[in-house]
Amino acid sequence: MARLCTGVAELDRVLGGGLVPGSLVLLGGSPGIGKSTLTGMALGNLGAGGHRVLYFSGEESAAQVRLRAQRLGEAALDVPALAETSLEAVLATLEAERPAACVIDSIQTLHAEGMSGAPGSVGQVREAASAVMEVAKRLDCAVILVGHVTKEGAVAGPRVLEHLVDCVLLFEGERERSFRTLRALKNRFGATSEVGVFEMRSGGLVEVVDPSARFVSEASAAAGSVVLASMEGTRPLLVEVQALVAPTEIVPPRRVANGIDRNRLAMVLAVLARHGGPSLSGADVFVNVAGGVRVDEPGADLAVALAIASAHRGEPLADPEHRPLACFGEVGLTGELRPVAHADRRIAEALKFGLGPVLCPAPTELPAGTEPHAALASALRRARRGAAERAA
Ligand SMILES: Nc1ncnc2c1ncn2[C@@H]1O[C@H](COP(=O)(O)OP(=O)(O)OP(=O)(O)O)[C@@H](O)[C@H]1O
Ligand SMILES: [Mg+2]
Predict the structure, then answer these.
(1) Of 265, 297, 339, 344, which has the most beta carbons under 10 Å away?
(2) Residue ID of nearest Cα to ligand 1 atom 28
(3) Which ligand is nearest to the CA of 71?
């Protein structure tokens, strides 16, 4: 079965090589993240490639859709857009036009006539999606359903669709920041480990081909900053982890985590206090993954610990040439450093950007240019000594 390449390389990669004809893709994301932009670009490219495409907009008028298309360029302008909220009308149009691909933006705005309940209610959404699916499979039309998800991901609407559709994509990021990530939560036709990184610009979403280079070049050499060699799916990604430690009178002190899991931050703080790091019961601690990226993996622990310790002492971890320190590793509850998956690729990525030696857990075998540590305490000492030596 030939896939339809959307021409948005990161989207194609996350999909597992493009859209599968007749499949249903649910694209979820919080408001304003760029769902309409992404789907508009994909349809524009497909249309330019000679495929029949259709864009149904239930949220915006045809004029608004056109305004966005103007921003995105000529290909997007050529996509036929219909402002339509009636399910029956959408189905009839699909039957008549038989597009190769279409976008329904959003599934929550569709309204089935025979059904009670407001648009966006669970019953309506489920009814609309299954009716669309039936037609899409029959006509071999690839459908992208846009769905709203609140920050907690708790909206009933799209969640009830997850079983029904073939593929669930989540578009994430903070609206105020320019970086966005696209990942697959479910994919019947490909891996769910791939992640695409985009940046929102005036001309639309731009694929960030080499996100590591971006994040490393933006990394700060100040105290509290360290580079984490993380894995985003099957791809290594270098991101900057920053920490700020500030004395406080507030009880309990604040623990703010952006881009990492709050519970892991609490765990790392507890391990630091017991195993060779500072005890921060009298300080607010803020940890941030720069650029609005989210890293949800235990491999981030060591970076969080090193950034906090560095921020607490006010001692930078970067060397005199402002080369940041790179690291990765899981921190265990007994203060040990635990190996994580894909150590070789993380290290290779860091070395590619001239960041080495990489601080990491003691491994089974490692290539040159690495410096394994079995315990958090020893990594803390090494990081500190390293910075001092490099500064001398
Ligand atoms: N000229 C511009 N330059 C840069 N960014 C822009 C410009 N115009 C819009 N944006 C960005 O595009 C985002 C909106 O994109 P889009 O409409 O695709 O999001 P959406 O996820 O479809 O939103 P909604 O949930 O409202 O449908 C805005 O948050 C804004 O940051
Ligand atoms: Mg939209």
Answers:
(1) 265
(2) 32
(3) 1
Ligand 1 atom having least distance to the Cα of 106: 27
Q: Is the peptide bond before 357 cis (omega within 30 degrees of 0)?
A: yes
Using most ligand atoms within 8 A of CB, pick from 8, 35, 181, 205 the residue to mutate for ligand 1: 35
List the beta bridge partners of residue 354. Answer: none
Question: Which residue did the predictor score with more confidence, 269 or 210?
Answer: 269
Q: What is the whole-number distance in angstroms between the Cα of residue 353 and the centre of ligand 1? A: 32
What count of other Cβ atoms lies within 10 Å of the Cβ of residue 303? 32
Render pLDDT for 328-362 as a digit per residue (tens, 0 to 9). 999 999 999 999 999 988 998 898 888 878 999 98
Q: Which residues contact 69 (CB under 8 A, 6 or more apart)?
A: 40, 44, 76, 77, 79, 81
Tokens 């994301």 appear where? 29
User: Residue 37, exposed/middle/buried by CB under 10 A (0-12, 13-18, 19+)?
Assistant: buried
Could you tell me the two tokens for 380? 């803390």
Sequence letter at residue 390: R
Query: Cα–Cα distance between 24 and 354 in angstroms, integer?
Result: 43
Q: Across all residues in the chain, what is the average pLDDT?
A: 88
